[in-house]
Amino acid sequence: MTKASVLITGASTGIGAVYAERFARRGHDLVLVARDNAKLETLAARLRQENGISVDVLPADLTQTRDLAAVEARLREDSRIGILINNAGIAQSGSFTGQTPDSIESLIALNVTALTRLASAVAPRFVQAGEGSIVNISSVVGLAPEFAMTVYGATKAFVLFLSQGLNVELSSKGIYVQAVLPAGTYTEIWDRAGIDISNAAKFMEVGELVDAALVGFDRREQVTIPPLHNAARWDTLDASRQALLSDIKQDEVAERYKAL
Question: Which DSSP letter does residue 226 get?
């Protein structure tokens, strides 16, 4: 049986490149998307030689409308693609008041808009086929406003919520959606954002992160948090959220807000 092809964004380095290596070892053909064509071609050539698979290279800057549209078209039209790894993303240095409107716009364009549009491009075809997988790379920062990465964290909170919402809508139609929440991981994202991690606590190696994420993928977890050592913490958080919702009465203001 032919294995589904995998389209991976941000595939030239870091998490995306390791996902490409791991799926190549599993015998999947690949479509690799990133801005750096030279790095993509080098990676593609190696993966073809080592694994005997087909690897297509699709250079694209997903913050640019034309490039994003080209990737959307590939997802809509290529029926061989059965797995989307929505990995492309950027971080941002500095406080909220120190960031520029342009830098904020670029961050949201890649981390939120592109990721959402790519999922939107492929989901109807997956629904029609009755199968398919979407993996969205979020972050534990999306759970922690205390980390002072306000806009970046907000984009990653969006990715988690989007993934959970897509699961509600699409799981009954045969579509699997996974949110992966890394913590600090050794990738190029920090250098690109101008964030010095030389004095930070030890981070996770990227291969370890992706291998753990793929264990969650194989188990069909909806939310995979590789650095979370007590899984019950997530279960408690989610149960508390649902309990909170059960206490909301939309037609009546809470007693504490009523005039004395």
Answer: T
